[in-house]
Design a protein that fits this description.
Blueprint: H1 8-23, H2 27-40, H3 48-64, H4 83-99, H5 103-116, H6 123-139, H7 143-157, H8 164-180, H9 184-200, H10 204-208
Length: 211
């Protein structure tokens, strides 16, 4: 009995859908897509680029689900990756380093990812990048920069359907940054709005922490 080969195009589409569910913080849907991808990826036509893409997204999924035990393993020669894969490599490593408090490493990968962002023709990804940069600056006690980048991210998320949780995440960062600046009334407005957004989206985990 022959095994049906899964096309690279089908796997690529599934990987794109998987990352989109991660970007919008839909943990359950992302988990379902991961199961589907895992059942098909071994049957795929051979493609090192797609396997690298999968490895990068699998690392991002682990962070989404709260697994920060291990950083991204080496994927071989980065020079052989195309610009988009290099971007994801540095961007996801930036997120990981930020979350574990390795800010010097985070800054290095943030700057490398920023240079490669031009290769990604996706406004949603630019907003995602700005959101992550806002968190980085918040953790470094740089509230004005955090507000700048969170506002840029919110401008996209709030105008596009499906990004309600990310809109709430931006409001949460804005609120926490306002607390740092002593702007308590404005902070309260942002935080109440963020809580309301998370509640309406039925994202209980996001109320505690947006990963």
């Amino acid at each position: 009995m022959s095994v049906q080969v899964v096309s690279k195009e089908e796997i690529t589409k599934l990987l794109q859908d998987w990352y989109q569910e991660m970007r919008v913080q839909h943990v359950f849907k992302a988990g379902q897509l991961k199961k589907d991808i895992d059942s098909k990826i071994d049957k795929m036509e051979e493609s090192q680029d797609i396997l690298m893409y999968y490895s990068l997204l699998d690392f991002r999924y682990k962070m989404l689900t709260g697994n920060f035990e291990q950083g991204l393993i080496s994927l071989g020669n980065l020079d052989k990756m195309d610009a988009v894969l290099k971007y994801y490599y540095h961007f996801f490593t930036f997120i990981y380093a930020t979350e574990v408090g390795n800010y010097s490493d985070a800054k290095k990968h943030y700057e490398l990812a920023e240079k490669l962002l031009i290769a990604v023709p996706d406004e949603a990804e630019k907003a995602e990048f700005n959101y992550r940069v806002s968190l980085f600056h918040y953790y470094l006690s740089q509230p004005l920069l955090a507000i700048h980048y969170a506002t840029k991210a919110q401008e996209f998320f709030s105008k596009n359907k499906g990004y309600e949780v990310k809109t709430g995440a931006c409001k949460n960062t804005l609120g926490m940054s306002c607390i740092t600046l002593g702007q308590f009334e404005l902070a309260e407005e942002y935080l109440i709005s963020a809580l309301d957004t998370f509640t309406k989206a039925d994202e209980h985990a996001s109320i505690l922490k947006v990963r």
